[in-house]
Specification:
2 domains; binds manganese (II) ion; TIM Barrel; binds phosphoenolpyruvate; elongated; single chain; alpha/beta; 339 residues; 8-stranded parallel β-barrel; Alpha-Beta Plaits; 4-stranded antiparallel sheet
């Protein structure tokens, strides 16, 4: 970091800043300019208390240079990370897998029918929530372990890998024993104990951005998972809260190229939660692939009108089937492939 002194700072104040820097186990380098003096701090200062320097007399501001996240930062790894959920679903290479399925697992018939349709449309993994994070405590909360068993049955029949959400640290082992990939939902993006718990288990994690989480906060949150030893993290942009209300969320597609600049982790896009309307999902899916998304997560329901959760944003099987070939053409235009 760089400590910028106030223009009227005294030599004693500059010397005091240098002392504080050395006390932190770092090196100081004082640069006296014509108008301002700055103290450059040399060494890895990410774990140090920047506030102590900010509060020192004569200091104007402290400017960090290194990212506050270390393992997630692009500089920490030469190649882009590829996350393997199954042979058919490797996220972060030239291939853009599609993870599709209902918002919630509702019953055997619904999830098996969904899985067959997801497979028939040419998608690569099945999603479905067994544990649902609901805004209203009286709303359907998911089938719990019964839902996980139904997902496993759908995998047995179709061969599709399953992606499903985990809500609490105590349920991580249970969900991990059934799932091929654990989803962390937007509402838990900064639930740090849960992030640490999924960081300690071996399955990949599809990690959604919180609805009011900045990119910087999001990458620091991802660091919680990585720092526990799990390198297989897929970021997922699913829209953020804004003043705009024609959509459920505002799908921030500029986050995709921005995240690609900042991190080696792959980035999925969820246009279903990102828009809240089935009629917008196809266009925003194509836009996401054009923007460089490494995977898509799309909600589908065999009968959206009667879905227990998120029916309004769920594609019909036919709509998903029609969408996939158009995605393939967009992918080809940006040197990627879908199938
Ligand atoms: C979901 O995937 O069904 C879900 C609850 O998503 P989000 O956490 O993005 O709201
Ligand atoms: Mn949903």
């Amino acid at each position: 970091m760089i400590v910028v002194m106030q223009s009227e700072a005294t030599k004693e104040q500059v010397a005091h800043v240098s002392d504080l820097v050395r006390e932190m186990g770092l090196k100081d380098h004082v640069i006296v300019g014509t108008d301002l003096t700055v103290v450059a701090v040399i060494g890895d200062d990410r774990k140090k208390e920047k506030r102590r320097l900010e509060q020192a007399p004569g200091v104007d501001r402290v400017v960090p240079i290194l990212h506050p996240y270390k393992i997630a930062a692009k500089e920490s790894r030469k190649e882009r990370t590829q996350v393997r959920i199954s042979d058919a679903c490797v996220i972060g290479g030239g291939h853009v897998p599609i993870v599709a399925g209902p918002c919630s697992v509702e019953n055997e018939k619904q999830i098996l029918e969904s899985a067959r349709q997801v497979k028939a449309a040419g998608c690569h993994a099945l999603r479905g929530g067994a544990f649902k994070p609901r805004t209203n405590p009286y709303a359907f909360q998911g089938l719990g372990e019964e839902g996980l068993k139904l997902l496993a049955a759908a995998r047995d029949e179709t061969g599709l890998a399953i992606v499903t959400e985990v809500l609490t640290p105590t349920e991580v082992d249970l969900v991990s024993s059934y799932a091929d990939c654990l989803q962390i939902g937007a509402r838990n993006c900064q639930n740090f104990k849960l992030l640490e718990a999924v960081g300690k288990q071996p399955k990949p994690v599809l990690f959604k951005r919180g609805m009011s989480t900045t990119i910087d906060e999001y990458l620091q949150a991802a660091e919680y998972i990585l720092a526990q030893g799990n390198p297989n993290v897929v970021l997922c942009e699913r829209g953020v809260r804004t003043f705009e209300d024609h959509t459920r969320n505002t799908l921030s597609l500029s986050a995709v190229p921005e995240l690609h600049i900042r991190t080696h982790l792959p980035i999925a896009v969820d246009p279903s939660h990102g828009t809240g309307h089935a009629r917008l999902v196809a266009d925003m899916s194509r836009a996401a692939v054009a923007a460089g998304a490494d995977a898509l997560m799309i909600e589908l329901h065999p009968d959206p009108e009667h879905a227990m959760t998120d029916g309004a944003q769920s594609l019909t099987p036919q709509a998903l089937k029609d969408l996939v070939p158009t995605l393939a053409r967009v992918a080809q235009a940006v040197d990627r492939s879908i199938n």
